[in-house]
Amino acid sequence: MKPLLRPSRLGPGALVAVVAPSGPVPEERLQAGLDVLRGWDLDPVVAPHVLDRHAAFDYLAGADADRAADLQAAWCDPAVDAVLCARGGYGVQRMTDLLDWEAMRAAGPKVFVGFSDITALHEAFARRLGLVTLHGPMAAGIDFLKNARAQEHLKATLFAPETVRVIASDDSTPMVPGRARGVTLGGCLALLAAELGTPHARPAARGGLLCLEDVGEEPYRIDRYLTQLLRAGWLDGVAGVLLGSWERCEPAELLRPLLADRLAGLGVPVAWDFGFGHCAGALTVPFGVTAELDADAGTLALDEPALR
Asked: CA 251: distance to chain centroid?
C-alpha cells in the first residue's frame, strides 16, 4: 500500500462546501455548524439539497441523484477548497455509482472530511482519486458542535497540520503490544464489510494501519463483520490495527474479548480505545498517509503532515 496525494491545507477565507451524502440534516444543527466554520474565518456554502428529505425513505437526505450531484458539483467547483459532510447516517452506497469519478479526478485534490457512513467515500476517494482524506467530525454533528477537543483537533489538522504530526490518545492501551508502520485507512467496521466486492473498495488492507470503529452494534454483528473481513482475506498482511470508539455496542464487557479473539491472531500490534469515531472529543485521523503506530504508547506518528 502506497501513501496517497495530500491536498493543500486551508487558510483564512477558504471556501468550504457542506454536502449531505447520507442521512437527513437537522437545520438548526447545520446552522450552528456553519457558525463554527465562520468563526474559523472560513467561508462555508451549503449545497442545494443538504436540507432535502427523500420522498419515500425518511432516513435519506433527498434523492440519490441529488445527493450525488451536490457532491460532484462541490468537488468540481475550482473555487471550493474543501468539502465537509454534514452528517452520516445511511445513503452513501446508494449514490457513489452516480458520481463521475473521471470528472472529479480531473478537478484535482482538495480536502474531504467525514466519518461513519462516509467510510464508503473514504474508500472510493482512495481507490478512484488516490487522495488523502480526513476521518473527522462533520459540520452538523453533535460532537463538532459541543466538544472543544473535537473542534480544535480538526481545526489544527485543517490549518496547521504540522502541529498534529503525532496523534495521541490518553486512554489507549495495547490489546496486542508493539510498533508497526503502514498507510492509514479504515473507518466504520460495518461499512468496510458492506463494501467488500464493490467497485470502489480496495481489494485488501495489506500494508495498512487499519482504523476501526462502530456505533450501535451488538457483539454478534461485530463478530460477523470481522469474520467476514477475515474470511475474505481482506485483513491478510495488515500492518497494525487502531480501535476507536464503540459507542452503544453492548454489552461492553464482551467487546474487548471479542475484538481480541478476532484480531489478535493477525499477529500485529493492536491499540485499544484510540479516541476516534462516534465518541465525545473524537480525534481527526488522516487516511492515506504513512505512519507508525506505537500500541504501547497509544500514539500514531505521521511521516508527513496530513495536508501540504
From this structure: 25
Residues 84 and 114 sit within 8 Å (Cβ to Cβ): yes
Q: At what angle do helices 219-231 and 252-263 cross, to 10 degrees?
A: 10
Listed in sequence order, the DSSP H helices in 107-241 are 119-124, 142-146, 148-159, 189-195, 219-231
Closest CA to 306 of 291, 289, 294: 289
Alpha-carbon distance values, 133 to 109, 129, 286, 287 (Å):
10, 10, 6, 5
157 φ, ψ (degrees, to nearest 5): -65, -40
Enter the C-alpha cell of residue 165: 504530526
Q: What is the mean pLDDT of residues 71-93?
A: 98
Question: What pLDDT band is residue 97 in, cutting at 50, 70 and 90?
Answer: very high
- Quick one: pLDDT band at residue 252, thresholds 50, 70, 90? confident
Mean pLDDT of 186-206: 96
Angle at alpha carbon of residue 128, lines to 122 and 129, rounded to 5°: 80
C-alpha 172/C-alpha 170 separation (Å) is 6
Instruction: Determine the residue type at 186.
Output: G
**What is the identity of the amino acid at 112?**
F
| Averaged pLDDT, 221-232 | 98
Closest CA to 37 of 55, 19, 63, 18: 18
Neighbours of 285 (CB within 10 A): 32
Q: Please tell me whether the overall predicted TM-score, pTM, comes out greater than 0.85 for this model.
A: yes
Catalytic residues, by residue number, are 116, 213, 278
Residue 187: what are its φ and ψ, rounded to 5°?
130, -140
Residue 8's pLDDT is what?
98
Looking at residue 306, its pLDDT comes to: 98
CA–CA gap between residue 184 and residue 239 (Å, rounded): 10
